UniProtKB/TrEMBL annotation, chain A:
Gene3D superfamilies in the record: MetI-like
Membrane topology value: Multi-pass membrane protein
Every ABC transmembrane type-1 domain range: 96-297
SUPFAM superfamilies in UniProt: MetI-like
PROSITE patterns in alphabetical order: ABC_TM1
Main location, first listed in the record: membrane
Annotated protein name in UniProt: ABC transporter permease
Transmembrane region(s): 9-27, 102-123, 135-155, 175-193, 229-254, 274-297
Domain of life: Bacteria
Coiled coil spans: none
UniProtKB/TrEMBL annotation, chain B:
Sequence segments annotated as region (Disordered): 29-48
Protein name stated in the entry: Peptide ABC transporter substrate-binding protein
Top-level taxonomy: Bacteria, Bacillati, Bacillota, Clostridia, Eubacteriales
Cited Gene3D superfamilies: Dipeptide-binding Protein, Domain 1 (3.90.76.10), Dipeptide-binding Protein, Domain 3 (3.10.105.10), Periplasmic binding protein-like II (3.40.190.10)
Highest taxon in the source lineage: Bacteria
From TrEMBL, chain C:
Signal peptide as annotated in the record: none
Name of this chain's protein: ABC transporter permease
Keyword line: Cell membrane, Membrane, Peptide transport, Protein transport, Transmembrane, Transmembrane helix, Transport
Principal location listed in the UniProt entry: membrane
Organism per entry: Caproiciproducens faecalis
Topology of this chain in the membrane: Multi-pass membrane protein
Residues annotated as transmembrane: 45-66, 108-133, 145-163, 169-188, 224-253, 273-298
UniProt-listed InterPro entries: BP-dependent_transpt_permease, MetI-like, MetI-like_sf, OppC_N
Domain of life of the native organism: Bacteria
UniProt family annotation: Belongs to the binding-protein-dependent transport system permease family. OppBC subfamily.
Coiled coil stretches, renumbered: none
Length: 313, 548, 308
């Protein structure tokens, strides 16, 4: 296991380097400059030169890349173009907090509600709660989260006045966006859990366990859930990354200074250093979570062996 | 066996916690950091606080880097120029008490008020203006606004190009209270320029002591306006506090101002309804329902959205085609029915209300040069098609924001209805659209320009350089008219030049086809009085506002 | 007295061993899909869903014909009209008939849905299955490819695509196929990792079955539950991705519309003219409910373990 983890960490670094390199060169192909074209054209030649010099944009792209990688290894992510002069690490750090809090809460809600609904739905197949789960799942997935967010804001925030309409002021501000984001998570988890559980409940070992007279709850928890959770764990990885790194629509609707809107804005405004900063953060996080998920597989199901090749076994 | 499994499970679980933990600590610290903002923002509008919002982030507080409206709004309220726009959008003495102009109209002498102070107690002197203006005319300035000084001030352009020394530039502090500015040519609107943020003073000693940190945080700045910056977060907004050392502090009635960032229209409206905002801008779909509301009002800006034709394109280089397209658009329906947000139909390039001869506006003097006439449109179209030999395919380039897309959809329908042609809409991100235009790779595009200052020259100057972005328009007549207007000492002749130039550009050569002047329809809380919105320059003025 | 029975050689005839007969399976030999179809037909809910989907598809194709308006005709005297006899679903900001626009949009969104499902099934399932079955180095490399694809910001790729490809539905399909299948691949991989060491796969291997056969005949049918469910999540996300891409100008240009675009536009005026959001949303939800029930039916029908 230890050897496997070390190997994965080496992979992680290599993959990250490939991502950073590709993104860097692709990003430079984006149309336009980091500057407002109408304004930039109004700068004098000397001003333009000094400006480009300051941001190192006069060098050939390959040199810029070399310098950038060098700086990153020294922990310097450069300064933002869009937020003139603000260091990228500061800009990103300031935005991660709100996104991560909302994402984490959404996952906790979605995971607990989704698992419970999925398990009960499978356990009581074709019952009222099974159909209810199906309805929740279908609505959760086909009603986009921005519509859910807008409706929650209008009814819970404005009409009933229970929770803040928008803004990032206190923990209360994070409830509505978390709930809005959690619908999709709930839907996915409930749906996957139900399907897998239905499969598993018909397997011989469950029948055996029941026949042995094990109590129902124990059968469910010890045998059924554990054997059905692989898809949920798989799907949870990307969900965690996506939610913790922000959702553009929900952040905008609740006026939350999150990282989702920063990412989209940085790409739209060619804010090179910010794009790179977020890409590094996002991919490192993603790869790490995938690694954890892979390790979880063999913990949950010892029959799964990742470290070795598959053919001969 | 069992034990090792359990151990592995715990290990995995702790890793998951560790990942999520990273995010969570970030939250805790960032919430703590914005602690002061929290207590502020919970105060409602009734407690001596006005809360407004902008749809974009506050990009910078460094005035030689700022070029967007939101930065201008904040700068204008925490700092001040020689003059400030009053409630009627006319300049009135601010840090300056008065000014004198020489007989040749080339030397302006401003006298500052007594006892002016920066928020840190330092005295504010004429030297602070010299430092700031020279900074704006140096290569350090990145806001693209250096021209607004170098075009007028003696040796400004030479200083920028490193061909003149600071002492030779036509701006001098004669003493602590007297500032002398020498101009290259008579500029009737020069005083109107001094209300703009680029002309605000900066304290050399302080700015230099802060180095690269200047303006990054509220603590890295000093202030001389009606307010000081209490907190500043580019993404979530800023809070302003009344500046007690401001010379006119007695007349500043509202003690706290919040400027928030809200990107969604519906969010802003909900926040307004729940009492979190003092004013909200309405989208066109809200207007019919709100129009009869007592809180409703609307205003039009000095900002013209127009169709830019590329005069080197195979198709629209044909003037009859351009005229046909121009005549084929019913701008009144566009403004009143489609936009319905206080926008006004364009009747020329220069927006309604802009300065003319002092008694009449520019628009009134040069009335309707852009009109809708379906019959004429058809006529010109047929003429154009005959000259081209066949009915051409036309693509309209637009930006991907929802208002511009709406406008594009509308005029696409108008061309279909009035000319019977199918125009293709090509919508691109702002950067991609600008790139295509700069690369001369477009036929016609929806573009907009907002006035930097209250004079027609802020528009007319744009078409003198013949760049692809401006449709490759190269006209001797037009350029000589503008050149003459810039030198003219006789105000009436200068005005005549400008009027003729607009006609040449829009009606005779049909290089641009104005569409509408952007407006805003908004609701303001009944207890908020005199929250002034300027049609150009720094948009929102808190100084004159009060709460009932 | 016991009679002595003579059993002579003559009483026996040599049975002819018919090789085919020996292995004969009395039940008609059905392929997995024929079998599935037979069982799907018994599932009432699934049949109803299929029928509704067929109706929606028919409406998408012929719906606009039932209106005297086209999806692009503007009418500035009747903007934002509510649903009425003349305009069943009301009119939008430009006075365009929503009925015509919704069915026109359904057409495009269904196309996107089908494309997304295909990408998911072909690229995603194959990628995941191969990665898991081969394991070891192959798996490691293939999983790193996924990580790289996910790590590079999509929006950058999309904007670059926009610069080189004409706006339109095929550009969207290309954009979707870059990472649209990643979750599917990871899910299938995880399931197969779980399955590949189980007895039936080992048995197949012992019998000398090739990798291709093992994937197609044994592993994928056993993964069908997850595949169907994930396809259900891919489809709406593809429909909304299309709306986002159309908004930034890579997809459909006005006056064309898709359900995603209509929902986006309707959302903008939700508080004043909710019908502009509700109708397209209902169509999408209906499509998804039917897909979902049908998907469940398909899963029951195709999963070999459910065979009786």
């Amino acid at each position: 296991m230890f050897k496997y983890i070390c190997k994965r960490i080496v992979y992680l670094l290599i993959t990250l380097l490939i991502i950073v390199t590709t993104t860097f060169f692709l990003m430079k192909q984006l149309p336009g400059t980091p500057f407002d074209a109408e304004r930039f054209n109004l700068l004098s030649a000397a001003q333009q030169a000094q400006f480009l010099e300051k941001y190192g944009l006069n060098d050939p792209v390959i040199v810029q890349y070399g310098k950038y990688i060098g700086n990153v290894f020294r922990g310097d992510f450069g300064t933002s173009f869009f937020y003139t002069g603000q260091p990228v690490s500061g800009v990103i750090m300031g935005r991660i907090g709100p996104s991560a809090l909302i994402g984490l809460q959404a996952i906790l809600i979605g995971l607990s509600v989704g698992l419970i609904l999925g398990i009960i739905a499978a356990w009581r197949h074709n019952s009222g709660i099974d159909y209810f789960t199906m309805v929740v799942a279908v609505l959760g997935v086909s009603v986009p989260n921005f519509v859910a967010a807008a409706l929650l804001q209008y009814y819970v925030g404005l009409k009933w006045g229970v929770l803040p309409v928008a803004f990032w002021q206190s923990w209360k501000s994070s409830i509505l966006p978390s709930v809005a984001l959690s619908f999709g998570v709930t839907a996915m988890i409930a749906r996957f859990m139900r399907t897998e559980m239905l499969d598993v409940l018909e397997q011989d070992y469950i029948v055996t366990a029941r026949a042995k007279g094990l109590n129902q709850f124990k059968v469910l928890m010890r045998h059924a859930v554990r054997n059905s959770i692989i898809p949920v764990v798989t799907i949870l990885g990307p969900i965690v990354v996506n939610l913790l790194t922000g959702s553009l629509a929900v952040e905008n609707i609740y006026s939350i200074p999150g990282i989702g809107s920063l990412f989209v804005d940085s790409i739209k405004t060619n804010d090179y250093s910010t794009i790179m900063g977020i890409t590094i953060f996002y991919s490192a996080f993603y790869i790490f979570v995938v690694m954890v998920v892979d390790i979880l597989y063999s913990v949950i199901d010892p029959r799964i062996r990742l470290a070795s090749g598959g053919k001969g076994e | 066996m069992k034990k090792s499994k359990l151990l592995a499970l715990i290990l995995a679980a702790s890793m998951v916690l560790a990942t999520s933990g990273c995010g969570f600590t970030g939250t805790a610290s960032s919430t703590a950091a914005s602690g002061p903002a929290q207590s502020e923002s919970t105060t409602k509008t009734s407690d001596g606080t006005i809360t407004v919002y902008d749809t974009n982030e506050i990009r910078t507080m460094v005035q030689w880097a700022a070029s967007d409206n939101n930065s201008f709004t904040i700068l204008n309220n925490v700092s001040e120029g020689l003059y400030r726009l009053n409630e009627k959008h006319e300049p009135e003495p601010a840090l300056a008490e008065s000014y004198k102009v020489s007989d040749d109209k080339l030397t302006y002498t401003f006298t500052l008020r007594d006892g002016l102070k920066w928020s840190n107690g330092t005295a504010l002197t004429a030297k602070d203006f010299v430092f700031s203006w020279l900074k704006q005319m140096s290569t350090d300035a990145t806001n693209g606004y250096s021209f607004i000084m170098t075009d007028y001030i003696v040796n400004g352009a030479e200083y920028l190009d490193n061909k003149a020394k600071a002492e030779d530039v036509g701006i001098k502090a004669l003493d602590d209270k007297t500032l002398e500015v020498k101009l290259k040519q008579p500029t009737p609107y020069f005083v109107r320029l001094t209300v703009l943020p680029m002309f605000f003073p900066l304290n050399e000693e302080y700015v230099k002591s802060q180095g690269a940190n200047y303006g990054l945080k509220a603590d890295n700045m000093i202030y001389c306006g009606p307010y000081t910056l209490a907190t500043y977060d580019p993404a979530s907004g800023s809070t302003l506090k009344k500046n007690d050392s401001y010379w006119d502090a007695a007349n500043v009635k509202v003690s706290n101002v919040n400027v928030r960032i809200i990107k969604e229209q519906a969010t802003a409206l909900n926040a307004y309804k729940s009492g979190e905002l003092s004013r909200v801008t309405l989208s066109s779909s809200d207007v019919p329902a709100m129009k009869s509301n007592a809180e409703f009002s609307s205003t039009s800006e000095f900002r013209t959205t127009y169709l830019q034709f590329n005069t080197t394109d195979k198709v629209v280089s044909n003037k009859n085609i351009r005229l046909a397209l121009g005549y084929a658009m019913d701008r009144k329906t566009l403004a009143d029915v489609i936009l319905a947000d206080g926008s006004a139909p364009a009747t020329g390039l220069i927006a309604n209300g802009m300065f003319g001869d002092g008694s009449k506006t520019f628009r009134e003097l040069n009335s309707d040069i852009t009109t809708f006439d379906a019959a004429k449109a058809k006529e010109y179209w047929e003429k154009g098609v005959k000259e081209l030999g066949s009915a051409p395919a036309i693509t309209l380039l637009t930006e991907d924001d929802s208002v511009t897309k709406t406008v594009a959809t509308y005029i696409q329908g108008e061309f279909k209805k009035n000319l019977g042609i199918d125009v293709k809409i090509d919508s691109k991100t702002k950067k991609a659209k600008n790139q295509l235009m700069d690369d001369n790779n477009y036929q016609m595009a929806i573009t907009a320009w907002g006035a930097d200052y209250d004079d027609a020259m802020t528009y007319m100057d744009l078409w003198t350089n013949g760049t692809p972005y401006r449709g490759n328009y190269k006209s001797e007549t037009y350029n000589s008219l503008i050149a003459d207007a810039k030198k003219q000492t006789d105000d009436a002749k200068r005005l005549q030049d400008m009027l003729t130039a607009e006609k040449t550009l829009v009606a005779d050569d049909a290089v641009v086809s104005p569409l509408f002047y952007r407006g805003f329809a908004y609701l303001t809380k009944p207890n908020v009085v005199n929250l002034v919105t300027h049609p150009f320059g720094p948009p929102i003025e808190f100084k004159y506002a009060s709460l009932k | 007295m016991a009679q002595k029975t003579e059993i002579s050689q003559e009483l026996f005839t040599k049975a002819v061993v018919d090789k085919d007969e020996r292995e004969h399976i009395a039940r008609p030999n059905l392929t997995a899909f024929q079998d599935g179809w037979l069982r799907l037909k018994k599932n009432k809910a699934a049949v109803v869903s299929l029928a509704i989907l067929v109706v929606i598809i028919l409406l998408a194709v012929f719906g606009p014909i039932f209106s005297k308006y086209t999806f692009y005709d503007t009418d500035y005297l009747h903007t934002y009209n509510g649903p009425s006899a003349t305009h069943l679903f009301g009119t939008d900001q430009f006075g365009r008939d929503q009925w015509a626009r919704i069915w026109q949009g359904t057409r495009i969104s269904l196309l996107i849905a089908v494309a997304a499902a295909f990408i998911d099934l072909f690229i995603g399932v194959t990628f995941g299955a191969v990665s898991a079955l081969f394991g070891g180095k192959v798996d490691a490399v293939m999983q790193r490819i996924i990580e790289i694809l996910v790590g590079i910001p999509q929006l950058i790729i999309v904007i670059l695509l926009m610069m080189v490809m004409p706006a339109g539905i095929w550009t969207i399909v290309v954009a979707l196929s870059i990472t649209g299948w990643v979750n599917m691949a990871r899910l299938v991989r995880a399931q197969i990792l779980k399955l590949k060491n189980q007895e039936f796969v080992l048995a197949a291997r012992v019998l000398g079955t090739g990798n291709r056969e093992i994937i197609l005949k044994h592993l994928i049918p056993n993964t069908v539950g997850v595949i169907v469910i994930n396809a259900m999540f891919t489809i709406p996300s593809a429909i909304f991705t299309e709306a986002f891409l159309s908004f930034i100008g890579i997809g459909l240009a006005e006056p064309q519309a898709s359900l995603g675009v209509l929902i986006n536009n309707g959302y903008q005026v939700l508080q004043n003219f909710p019908f502009l959001l509700i109708f397209p949303a209902v169509v999408i939800v209906l499509i998804m409910v039917c897909f979902s029930i049908l998907g469940d039916g398909l899963r029951d029908a195709l999963d070999p373990r459910m065979r009786q």
